[in-house]
Design brief:
By secondary structure, the chain is an alpha/beta fold. The protein has 6 helices and 5 strands, in the order βααβαβαβααβ. The chain has one domain: Bacterial extracellular solute-binding protein, family 7 (D-Maltodextrin-Binding Protein, domain 2, 3-Layer(aba) Sandwich), CATH 3.40.190.170. It has a 5-stranded parallel sheet. It is globular, with a radius of gyration of 20 Å. The termini are far apart.
């Protein structure tokens, strides 16, 4: 059974490093894996858009060139709202997506998005790495024949009270 890769919002780099270190002979080095990567963000968009190309470059470098992704801008292959189903059916190799967009498939996928008033970055990554968050993400997406990897995490929404208004008036009466 073929599994598609859902690249979501560093674990992948460790996996690729293990792959590149584990290559056995020159014949294995000559084989190349070519995959399509459907982007959810325009490549010109700061951080998330440029991060997609950063990911592609890192994978190529770490794998010694044996893994290559061909990037497609959002909507070039199909609408972003259809990425999940295309990945699940094996019609799309990979996509850089936020799983929170697909809560209609699985409501718990909302945990893998920027949750308003949720944990700060360190807390979130601690939960993902050491508290079972990453395993839960994989369990949720494997039901749909999708392998998920945590690659990028956007900043959590501000907590209540982080932006305060002055109670003093800026105009004065004479």
């Amino acid at each position: 059974m073929r599994r598609s890769l859902c690249v979501t919002v560093g674990a992948v780099l460790a996996a690729l490093l293990a792959f590149s270190v584990g290559r056995q002979d020159a014949a294995a080095q000559e084989k190349k894996v070519r995959l399509t990567l459907a982007g959810s963000f325009p490549s010109s968009m700061a951080i998330l858009g440029t991060g997609q190309h950063y990911f592609i470059d890192k994978v190529k470098k770490i794998s010694g060139g044996s893994i290559e992704f061909k990037f497609f801008e959002p909507g070039a292959l199909l609408p972003g709202s259809q990425y999940f189903d295309a990945l699940s059916a094996g019609n799309l190799d990979s996509a850089m997506i936020g799983l929170g967009f697909f809560t209609g498939k699985e409501v718990a996928l909302a945990l893998y998005s920027s949750v308003p008033f949720g944990p700060e970055m360190g807390e979130y990554l601690g939960w993902m790495r050491y508290g079972g968050g990453e395993q839960l993400m994989q369990e949720l997406t494997r039901k749909y024949n999708i392998e998920s990897l945590l690659c990028v995490r956007s900043r959590p929404r501000p907590r209540a009270g982080s932006a305060r208004r002055s109670s003093r008036s800026t105009t004065s009466k004479a």
